[in-house]
């Protein structure tokens, strides 16, 4: 079923809701996150789906966080930026707004905005240079306008990240049977799920790590999840895995000796953190298989069986003492699975937004003409809108050569900003093989080497005797027809 995201639009600040060990299970309410401006959420949504925010314009956030796969990617290990493969399971983005930090399986990132910077910059995720990303968006008029309207400035990396983060906070699931039950709807959960909840809090001891309203202590544990086979079946995953470990500064003997993900150790390099991962929140599990940091378990039955046997032999010597055989009966395991299932609400699907197209810009964007003279004069002192040198009322030429006139090139001093903005530099008259310039109502031709009034009249009107017409229209700066200078503009009368 469809849930309209805009009705769950949320603010830019996370709410302090981190659970502590004493926290009992709680339901979530959408109102726990204040509303964000729907325009920001909408902008963030477009950026989230836009592959142009990756180096080769191939990989959007949504490629690895696809609404159709529970906002993950449905595989054990994620794909990667072309030429790489990721070595971890792509996490769901549902309910990220309720988390107070510690993003990623190893919790290496403090905020959703930081996470966006990280994902965009990482060579194996989106692999895009910040400046390139900003300039791409600036070349898309709709984005440029939206950023200006919302943020008061054109696209910047910081605002890109904030917009995407606002969209992520709008992806909220609070309608699970468990949440409804917690909100007082006593018949929302089945009796089996209710028995499962008792086991979760009691005999199975799950709530010692999965508790509070988010079902996570946002802390780290080694639960002894078995290593991924996929990691060692794919050379590209091995490359990416070793690459990151090197980048993080792990010594060669360490990263070459690791046959599994070192988890939190990557972020801290504290030996006690080997194999530890952030406790994941447990909502929306119905849509997010396979499970765990490496996607080794495809069903919740497997997960429960894994905990029931007390995990696997530990590779790192850091296994949590809380993971031990539980002795659950077949029926109890079924009840525990029913409880886990009761924490999923309706599926959150969104329509893929239509993405705005690239456009062409008029130059100069800054209003400053770049010439040797203007650069020498110091750009800072160059007027944004150069002073007028003539007026239409007096019939004067709009453009005049700047002194000293260069041998080549288009030098002009437009009269006002209105004219400036109507400057279309790239018109090319194929018939006359000459560059034409339109300013407001007037059209000009660029004088080339060898041009005379006669040759131009011939090119323009097919009759060199029309030179008088050209001369008359440019009388204000042409005293004699031989005054014609290369690189200046000649007004063409209608
Ligand atoms: C190539 C696949 C890929 C792309 C592209 C990608 N991600 Fe991810 N994402 C992942 C993987 C894999 C993880 C887990 C990473 C880890 O633990 O090291 C992840 C983790 C996250 C998390 C942390 C979730 C949590 O529970 O802590 C967030 C938030 C996130 N991604 C958002 C984004 C955004 C926003 C973008 C676009 C800017 C993006 N991702 C692009 C694969 C991807
Ligand atoms: C010691 C703390 C701890 C205890 C106790 C614990 N968990 Fe976990 N749980 C974690 C951590 C950490 C992970 C992630 C492990 C990984 O990916 O390597 C996890 C992962 C999961 C996942 C996979 C979620 C996902 O998005 O992939 C499920 C489901 C789960 N636990 C359910 C349970 C249940 C049910 C119990 C009780 C039987 C339980 N947990 C007990 C810490 C704990």
Overall tally of domains: 2
The whole-number mean of residue pLDDT values reads 84
Largest sheet: 4 strands, antiparallel
Decide which structural class fits the backbone. mainly alpha
Helix fraction, binned, reads: 25-40%
The fold-level CATH name of the largest domain is Cytochrome Bc1 Complex, Chain D, domain 2
Low-confidence spans: pLDDT under 50, at least 5 residues? 1-21, 382-431
What's the arrangement of strands in the largest beta sheet? Answer: 3-4-5-6
What is the CATH C level class of the largest domain, in words?
Mainly Alpha
Quick description:
With about 500 residues, the protein is mainly α. It is about 30% helix and about 5% strand. It folds into 2 domains: about 5-340, Orthogonal Bundle (Cytochrome Bc1 Complex, Chain D, domain 2), CATH 1.10.760.10; about 385-490, no CATH class.
Can you walk through the features of this model?
This protein is mainly alpha-helical. The protein has 18 helices and six strands. The protein has two domains: 5-341, Cytochrome Bc1 Complex, Chain D, domain 2 (Orthogonal Bundle), CATH 1.10.760; 386-492, no CATH class. It has a four-stranded antiparallel β-sheet. A two-stranded antiparallel sheet has the order 1-2. A hairpin with a 4-residue loop joins strand 3 (428-429) and strand 4. The two termini are 63 Å apart. Residues 59, 61, 63-65, 78-80, 86, 88, 90-91, 93, 96, 103-106, 112, 115-116, 119-120, 125-126, 164, 168 line the site of one heme C.
């Amino acid at each position: 079923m469809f849930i309209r995201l805009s009705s769950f639009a949320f603010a830019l600040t996370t709410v302090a809701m981190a659970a502590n060990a004493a926290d009992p299970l709680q339901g979530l309410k959408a109102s726990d996150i204040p509303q964000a401006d729907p325009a920001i959420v909408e902008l963030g949504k477009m950026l989230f789906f836009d592959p142009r925010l990756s180096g080769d314009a191939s990989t959007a956030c949504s490629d690895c966080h696809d609404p159709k796969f529970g906002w993950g990617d449905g595989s054990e290990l994620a794909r990667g930026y072309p030429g790489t493969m990721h070595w971890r399971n792509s996490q769901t983005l549902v309910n990220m707004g309720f988390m107070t930090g510690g993003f990623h399986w190893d919790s290496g990132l403090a905020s959703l905005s930081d996470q966006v910077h990280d994902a965009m910059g990482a060579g194996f995720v989106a692999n895009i240079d910040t400046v390139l990303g900003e300039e791409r968006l600036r070349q898309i008029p709709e984005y440029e306008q939206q950023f200006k309207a919302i943020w008061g400035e054109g696209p910047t990396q910081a605002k890109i990240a904030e917009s995407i983060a606002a969209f992520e906070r709008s992806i909220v699931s609070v309608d699970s049977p468990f949440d409804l039950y917690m909100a007082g709807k006593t018949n929302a959960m089945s009796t089996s799920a209710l028995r499962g909840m008792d086991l979760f809090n009691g005999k199975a001891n799950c709530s010692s790590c999965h508790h509070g309203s988010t079902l996570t202590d946002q802390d780290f544990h080694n639960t002894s999840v078995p290593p991924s086979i996929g990691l060692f079946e794919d050379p590209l995953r091995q490359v990416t895995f070793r690459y990151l470990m090197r980048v993080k500064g792990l010594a060669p003997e360490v990263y070459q000796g690791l046959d599994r993900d070192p988890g939190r150790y990557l972020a801290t390099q504290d030996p006690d953190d080997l194999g530890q991962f952030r406790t994941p929140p447990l909502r929306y599990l119905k849509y997010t298989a396979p499970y765990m940091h490496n996607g080794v378990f495809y069903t919740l039955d497997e997960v429960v069986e894994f905990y029931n046997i007390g995990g696997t032999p530990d590779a790192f010597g850091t296994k949590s003492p809380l993971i031990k055989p539980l002795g659950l009966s077949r029926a109890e395991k079924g009840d525990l699975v029913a409880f886990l299932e009761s924490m999923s609400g309706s599926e959150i699907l969104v329509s893929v937004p239509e993405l705005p197209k690239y456009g062409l810009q008029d130059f100069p964007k800054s209003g400053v003409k770049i010439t040797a003279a203007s650069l020498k004069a110091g750009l800072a002192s160059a007027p944004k809108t150069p002073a007028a040198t003539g007026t239409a009322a007096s019939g004067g030429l709009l453009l005049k050569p700047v002194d000293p006139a260069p041998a080549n090139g288009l030098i002009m001093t437009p009269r006002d900003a209105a004219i400036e903005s109507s400057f279309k530099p790239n018109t090319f008259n194929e018939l006359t093989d000459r560059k034409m310039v339109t300013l407001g109502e007037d059209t000009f031709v660029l004088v080339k080497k060898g041009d005379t009034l006669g040759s131009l009249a011939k090119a323009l009107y097919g009759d060199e005797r029309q030179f008088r017409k050209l001369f008359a229209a440019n009388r204000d700066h042409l005293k004699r027809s031989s005054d014609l200078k290369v690189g200046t503009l000649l007004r063409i009368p209608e």
